[in-house]
Amino acid sequence: DWYDVITLGAGRTALVIGDVMGRGVRAAAVMGQLRTAVRAYARLDLPPHEVIQLLDVLASEIDATQIATCVYAV
To answer: Residue 59 in 3-state DSSP?
Structure first.
């Protein structure tokens, strides 16, 4: 599980809550990649649904068998 609070500027803040299914090094590595990616995508100042769409594409490229959930709200 992970969560982040990301300052976006213009008085806006993003809240991210995510979880990668599984245990061990592989799940932790995927979680780290997704967490880093969502922070990078947030800096692009995209609408929340676009951030999630980009994250979904990345998640499937990292490991199509790994299941993850994520909420991104501004």
So the answer is: helix
Give residue limits of the domains in the chain. 2-73
Which DSSP string corresponds to 20-51?
ESS-HHHHHHHHHHHHHHHHHHHTTT--HHHH
Q: Which residues contact 22 (CB under 8 A, 6 or more apart)?
A: 66, 67
36: Cβ contacts below 8 Å, ≥ 6 apart: none
Q: Can you tell me the distance from the alpha carbon of 39 to that of 3, in angstroms, rounded to the nearest whole number?
A: 11
Estimate to the nearest angstrom the gap between the alpha carbon of 40 and the chain centroid.
Answer: 9
Across the chain, mean pLDDT equals 95
> Mean pLDDT throughout 48-64?
95
Please, which residues bridge with residue 20 across strands?
68
Is the per-residue pLDDT at 59 higher than 90? Answer: yes
DSSP 10: T
